[in-house]
Write a structure and sequence with these properties.
The complex is a heterodimer. Chain A is mainly β. Helix content of chain A is 0%, strand content 56%. Chain A has no helices and 11 strands. Chain A has strands spanning 5-7, 10-14, 19-24, 31-37, 44-49, 55-58, 61-65, 71-76, 85-93, 96-99, 103-108. Chain B is built from no helices and 11 strands. The chains are: A mainly beta, B mainly beta. The A-B interface holds A 1, 6, 31, 33, 35, 40-45, 48, 50, 88, 92, 94-102 and B 2, 4, 33, 35, 41-45, 48, 55-56, 58-59, 90, 92, 96-104.
């Protein structure tokens, strides 16, 4: 069974603060995606990383894939209330798609 | 807009019944995956179809089955419904690299 451990589970911060969400596994993934989900809606794809050591930036969001392709992080700079939501990582390995448990982020004005 | 639609949006069934959920994606998407998401949890992978054949399966019993059709649509069938099957069912389609999610079907089993 592949496990994708996501942490922290909950994050409550003030507007303007920085934060990092982590996804770790003992399995190697061929690709990893980060999603953001609002209540009552399906997850929205933020980024896909496929190469070990890869770093991708999307405005204030920075995504990193570990060198061994077993872990990933999402860093948000100067968080805004609009960043509030459920953040999910998903790894793909040998036809199995595994989601992390999710991080519920709340950014207070 | 992801171009992925699901129907129905909500559904109520009773224990023991069978249900079919539908997903429609866009041209060029050769994969479709189905997930079960309980309230407050991350989605759990049910299975993925790639070019109309099952490409991977999660830890769900055989009463969960699916089909992918050539017209970029897909079905998730669940037989002998149990109370614990109540959840949001998500369809995602795209390629083996990245998939895009539909809005989900909320299934309630009474």
């Amino acid at each position: 069974t592949q496990l994708l451990e996501q942490s922290p589970q909950f994050l409550s911060i003030q507007e303007g603060e920085n934060l990092t969400v982590y996804c770790n596994s003992s399995s190697v993934f061929s690709s990893l995606q980060w999603y953001r989900q609002e209540p009552g809606e399906g997850p929205v794809l933020l980024v896909t990383v496929v190469t070990g050591g890869e770093v991708k930036k999307l405005k204030r969001l920075t995504f990193q894939f570990g060198d061994a392709r077993k872990d990933s992080s999402l860093h948000i700079t100067a968080a805004q209330p609009g960043d509030t939501g459920l953040y999910l990582c998903r790894g793909t390995s040998y036809g199995k798609l595994t989601f992390g448990q999710g991080t519920i982020l709340t950014v207070h004005p | 807009e992801t171009g992925v639609t699901q129907s129905p949006t909500h559904l109520i069934k009773t224990r023991g019944q069978q249900v079919t959920l539908r997903c429609s994606s866009q041209s060029g998407h050769n994969t479709v995956s189905w997930y079960q998401q309980a309230l407050g949890q991350g989605p759990q992978f049910i299975f993925q179809y790639y070019r109309e054949e099952e490409n991977g399966r999660g830890n769900f019993p055989p009463r969960f089955s699916g089909l992918q059709f050539p017209n970029y649509s897909s079905e998730l069938n669940v037989n002998a419904l149990e109370l614990d099957d109540s959840a949001l069912y998500l369809c995602a389609s795209g390629t083996l690299i990245a998939e895009f999610f539909g809005p989900g079907t909320r299934l309630t089993v009474l």
